[in-house]
């Protein structure tokens, strides 16, 4: 598949073959670091708590602040890329992330580490907010699905490998190396990005400062509140934060309708294919978030396996996505992406339904084929659906579409995590109930995806 991505044909848009290779390596490296750092530190939290002299509860913020800052800035950075150019934003974000990684490695206090992690989140948001849209200007339109499939593989590997890489580094070295390893990799990615990313002129548009502030409070407030609910901390503070986030959402939508240069042009949502793909993505990521958080509890508390065995039982899901994602992207280039996504969601639903049948007597083989089926379905869904989101809007709006894609992914996963936490906290709640809620979410996503199939078919004929 990689060889096909670099083939050059007459009339191709995008970059020439050799430049594609370097640009792809820069994007994959930056994305991989950003995704890995959302999970690589989790396994080290007990160690960090002991060495920094803080409580276990406080140490969780070393992980949470990264996710919170990243989520808050996705829409803002996507819009800022139109003002300064995508290549400048990506390179700047990569530079900030690399320097912040060095600061994390050198931190010897909780406060300094927390600030450094916030800076890492800023750099990650800059890269993740526009990463998918850069694929559109690097690769020819005929290869967009395959390229986005490779992006899905990159993210899946980061999800799958984060805990394992973190555990290996801690086994061989001290915790600062969790962050120091990013420095040489980041410098290499920075060199490649400076050399290969396509340059864009800055657009003469006004940056919507008030819209940016509203979106930051809206996104960070909602993720914070959902995180509190998911960890059993729901109370007056969480409810007040959620209410503030909803108020900012109302204000944000109102401003986007009435400002000349909106942060998120609502013209995006006038394209039915984009709107359906975005909503479908949110419900699918909600279901995945439920499964990713609920299954480790199911394996350890119900089936009685060790944490290490639990991690191994979970890995078929992201590993299968790594295999299926690029194939699905290539199919989306040749056929109807909505149809392929719907097929994937159907298989994903079968896998989720199968997971609800797990109990204390289930064997490891029972778990493996069920999680692998979920991975096959999700792998078939993700790349074609992302192609629909990025490819169905005008090129000038692709950066904004990329920001929306990253935002719905983050929000869906956060909502899924919160639902599992709420169910575990209920006296009548159960892990099986959370999986059934995940099935309902997939049913909604599948219904939306089936409805849009004729829309995608019509546009392909046109």
Describe it for me?
- Keywords: Cell membrane, Membrane, Transmembrane, Transmembrane helix, Transport.
- This protein folds into three domains: 15-201, Growth Hormone, Chain: A, CATH 1.20.1250; 208-262; 265-462, Up-down Bundle (Growth Hormone, Chain: A).
- Helix 6 (110-138) packs across helix 17 (398-425).
- The protein is globular.
- It has 462 residues and is mainly α.
- The protein contains 18 helices and no strands.
- The chain has helices at residues 2-5, 17-36, 45-52, 56-84, 86-106, 110-138, 144-172, 177-180, 182-196, 209-230, 236-258, 272-302, 307-314, 316-334, 337-355, 364-391, 398-425, 431-461.
- 80% of the residues lie in helices and 0% in strands.
In short:
Belongs to the major facilitator superfamily. EmrB family. The chain has 462 residues and is mainly alpha-helical. The protein contains 18 helices and no strands.
What's the level 1 CATH class of the largest domain?
Mainly Alpha
Mean pLDDT equals 83
- How much strand? under 5%
> Which series of helices and strands comes N to C?
HHHHHHHHHHHHHHHHHH
CATH superfamily of the largest domain: MFS general substrate transporter like domains
Structural class by SSE content: mainly alpha
Nearest-angstrom radius of gyration? 21 Å
Q: What gap, in angstroms, lies between the N and C termini?
A: 28 Å
Going by CATH, the architecture of the largest domain would be Up-down Bundle
Q: What is the number of independent domains?
A: 3
Helix share bin: over 70%
Number of helices: 18
Number of beta strands:
0
- In this structure, how is the largest beta sheet organized? none
Family: Belongs to the major facilitator superfamily. EmrB family.
Organism: Salinicola endophyticus
Keywords: Cell membrane, Membrane, Transmembrane, Transmembrane helix, Transport
Protein name: DHA2 family efflux MFS transporter permease subunit
